Amino acid sequence: MSAYAAIHVGLKQVGIEGEDKRDFYMRLTGKPTLTVMTSADHGAVLQELRRLGFKQHSKGSRPRLEGRYAKKLQALWIAAWNLGLVRSRDDKALLAFVKRQTGIDHVRFLRHPEDAAKAIEALKAWMTRGAGVEWRAPLGTPGWMARPAYRLALAQWAILEKADTLPQPGSLATFVRATTGAPDPAAMTDAQWREVMNALGKRVREAAT
Question: Which of 85, 104, 131 is the endpoint of a domain?
Fold first, then answer.
């Protein structure tokens, strides 16, 4: 379960709702919303929720699909969900997509690269076509800006910019630093990039409603 999801579950468990959430966040971190907090801020919020009685159950975490290509497909599916393309992030929806592309019932049965590529490339093409993801960075782009996670976040930022719903003034790099507390995006971990994409994904889905 991500920090975002855990905090929302914890707030519900301990009965903090509405404007009380903002006051709760401000008291602990000095920041009004989760999207402008750092990872350390999220940790402080979770720690206080646990002190107040929040019980985080491991069974609530997202299960991992089995199979050689499962991790990659599941990550791409969540990325498509965070781009507003996928209506359900449920693994059943992913499995149905894989079957349509390959004729194979479950990702654990994807054993040959050519079969997996049908689903992987179809997902990536969908994200390019539907959300403007440019997987190949221009020549000379710094290495961290060529990472798939950054290319996905850049597409999310463009969607919000077009909808005039950017989370804050400034650049994507500024938002990344504010969200994760990482002083150098080039040194960010995969977990930190997931945090950024999840934060932007929530806004993308809200903008689409």
Answer: 131
- Summarised one tens digit per residue, pLDDT across range 41-95 is 888 999 888 888 787 765 444 556 889 999 999 999 999 999 999 988 888 999 9
Residues 134/145, Cβ–Cβ less than 8 Å? no
Q: What is the pTM of this model?
A: 0.70
For the beta carbon of residue 154, count every other beta carbon within 10 angstroms. Answer: 17
Q: Are residues 44 and 85 in the same domain?
A: no
Q: Could you tell me where the DSSP H helices lie in 63-112?
A: 70-82, 91-102
Instruction: Decide: 192 and 182 in contact? Cβ < 8 Å.
Output: yes
Cβ-based neighbours of 196, under 8 Å, separated by 6 or more: 149, 153, 175, 176, 179, 180
Report if residue 137 sits inside a domain. no
Asked whether residue 32 falls in the same domain as residue 51, the answer is yes
